[in-house]
Amino acid sequence: MKPKVIAAAVMITAVLGGTGVTAASASSVPAALHNSLPVVYGLPIGHLSGSNFFNPQIRPTGPMSFAADGSGYMVMHSYSNWTATAGTGSATTFARIAGRTIRGSRTMIRFFRVRTHDGQRYFTRVFIRDCWHGKSGTAYFQPRYQVSWAILKGCA
Hints:
- The protein is built from 2 helices and 7 strands, in the order ααβββββββ.
- It has helices at 2-17, 31-34, and strands at residues 62-65, 72-82, 87-97, 100-117, 120-132, 135-141, 149-154.
């Protein structure tokens, strides 16, 4: 039994080894493997200099920052839907005002507006319902700036 398990592990390692995918990085998917489903780039905050086309994730969880100083961000939790045109899930919004972090409410998020970069489809917008005191807003992906996601309108 053990030789079969070891042989299977070696085969999986050989297949994944050439792609850069490991069991630990299954959510960070190389473009060649999943270019039919859009990804979200540039999480959690962006790149200090250069391109924000890094760390592609399908159904990302964890923080997404909207300001370099951490004054506005959300934590993405889970998704009920992820298709070729949209991804719908839940998140909690946060804001830092006068040095105090204030937790918003748990809310619905929807990624949309798909574009392509080097053959990989990716989302460029995320709608955030009830992001701050009943206001809804939209954030957009910035390919070349420090903060990879910024508020386009609302949420202020």
